[in-house]
Specification:
Two copies of one chain form a homodimer. Chain A has 235 residues and is an alpha+beta fold. Chain A has helices spanning 18-30, 66-71, 128-136, 186-198, 207-213, and strands spanning 2-4, 37-38, 53-54, 78-80, 98-106, 120-121, 140-143, 158-169, 172-179, 228-234. In chain A, strands 5, 6, 7, 8, 9 and 10 form a six-stranded mixed sheet that branches. A two-stranded antiparallel ribbon of chain A has the order 1-4.
């Protein structure tokens, strides 16, 4: 499990990326050119605090030493939290059973200076009870075609959401979604749609219809990535 | 009450500072050149999330509109949380009864990527029970001459600490001190001394003697400012 902030996962030429940075650190430690496979990509700016990735190595370094060794070669915006040995055919992406994302909204009057890059600030008081009703309509298997970035191709836009939750912690609203997978921008669009519910622009009972319409224009806007956290990946 | 991050309070020529920034914003709103008086200075890098400051104005703008108006003229690293009218002779510094500071230690194995600039990371497991015993010895009125930055002049180094507390939240250790005032670097040196206790370098029962020695060399090191929060100021 690793934790990273503000940088996209996938290798991109001449851009800072998590995959490339960790592969370079592993090479520094083991001398090997490895391919690091994550549970999936994260958009640039999303905090992948529960990301999981695997690689193959012949290194004799004890497994429990890997986090400290790799972290010593990484910038502090990327931290390996834990390492464990897995069977050879383990694959972080293919074997992934479920992922949990969290979107953090600061719904205070003035926002926070300190966490300004870690949460989405909206000063207009949201109707959290309506949002709690609305989020339940996302549970189950749906075609989320209307909840992905327009122009992105992916074979199927059907995904299953196992669990949804909205928590309130003082003036913060935490939106949590657990599913078998999420489309590009999907959580950020769901969060944007729930904010519209909180603002009274969309009624909770309209959500089902909006999902079934498969129409991106009927869902809410894509909220910014810096308030989104990939918190857990399960196998 | 305001919240700010990473910038020292006091006006310094050609440096970003909270006082100057807010005075400029107030001038943008009211047209008046005001003098903003805070409860006290904070070191550069300390997060003054509970700072209180006052100024005099003849503006007809309703008091409840001030935070929004001033925030609209400030960079997002400075946020006014609240504003209220006080009697004319109120003085944020002279009338201050007590202040509460919090120092946040991340005592996990690998630290956090996301909060790396908001907490002090120490991977060696600290003995929190010993730290809890030790912090009690700071309570009461003491001459804290050994717990201030060397070379700083101030009339008296006697301060009274009303309340101390160490909280554990998962892998974080929160050190909290409430007192009638704190010397320059005092909380950061107390936190450094408590870390030495947690590491077994200093015994809890030695604290009293270290305070009484008034010897800066016997206290722990000055921990970095970015993990320190001025959380509350009371009148």
């Amino acid at each position: 499990m690793m934790e990273k902030t503000s940088i996209g996962w996938q290798k991109q030429p001449s851009k800072l990326n998590i995959q490339g940075e960790i592969e370079r650190a592993i090479k520094d430690i083991t001398g090997e050119e490895v391919e690091l496979i994550a549970s999936g990509r994260t958009d640039a700016g999303v905090h992948a605090i529960g990301q999981v990735a695997n690689f193959k190595t012949s290194s004799k370094l004890p497994i429990e030493k890997f986090p400290i060794a790799i972290n010593s070669k990484l910038k502090k915006s990327i931290r390996i939290q834990n390492a464990e040995e897995v069977e050879e055919r383990f694959h972080s992406r293919y074997n992934c059973k479920e992922k949990t994302y969290r979107y953090i909204i600061n719904n205070s009057m003035q926002g926070s200076a300190i966490y300004r890059n870690l949460e989405y600030f909206i000063p207009i008081k949201l109707d959290v009870e309506a949002m709690k009703q609305a989020i339940k309509h996302f549970e189950g298997e749906h075609d989320f075609k209307g909840f992905k970035a327009s122009g992105t191709s992916s074979k199927s836009s059907v995904r299953k959401i196992y669990k949804t939750q909205i928590k309130q912690e003082n003036q913060r609203i935490l939106i949590e979604l657990t599913g078998n997978g999420f489309l590009y921008n999907m959580v950020r669009i769901i969060a944007g749609t729930l904010v519209d519910v909180g603002l009274g622009k969309i009624k909770p009972e309209e959500i089902e219809d909006i999902i079934n319409s498969k129409d991106r224009a009927r869902a809410g806007k894509t909220l910014p990535p810096y308030a989104l956290y990939l918190v857990e990946v399960k196998y």
